[in-house]
Amino acid sequence: MFRARAIRTWQDAELAAVDHMRSIGFAEAQVTGSGADGGIDVIAHDAIAQVKHYGQPIGVGPIRELRGVADAHHHLLFYASGGYTASALKFADERGARCSPSWSSATSLQ
Q1: Residue 37, Cβ density class (10 Å: 0-12 exposed, 13-18 middle, ≥19 buried)
Q2: CA distances from 89 to 29, 36, 102 (A)
């Protein structure tokens, strides 16, 4: 079951992504830790996720970067507290990346 989490920092956002991924079947999801993660913030057996805690919608660039580091992972997830531009959503759909619809639907932004 997915539990709401107050998101105040990028670390909170990454933990919320872990919670969500576990709730959709990636039981071993975990934060990659600090340091050079190559653009991957959360990893599971067959999935990777990138998390952006920005106040504005993200564009195509970060999703393109995630697609580029995907390697053999079959599931690509993207979480953005500020949402996505229309072009970013179109790009993600065409490339098989899943964009979380909105942090506000499942979490509290304060």
Answers
A1: middle
A2: 24, 26, 12
Per-residue pLDDT of the chain (110 residues; tens, 9 = 90+): 566 678 888 899 999 999 999 999 999 999 997 665 567 899 998 888 999 988 899 999 988 888 777 766 778 889 998 889 999 999 988 888 888 865 543 333 22
Q: Is the pTM of this model over 0.85?
A: no
DSSP 75: E
Residues 105 and 62: their CA atoms lie apart, in Å, by 22
Sign of CA dihedral 69, 72, 73, 77: positive
CA dihedral for 61, 64, 68, 71, sign (positive or negative): positive
C-beta of residue 20 within 8 angstroms of C-beta of residue 103: no
Q: Tell me the sheet residues that pair with 80.
A: 52
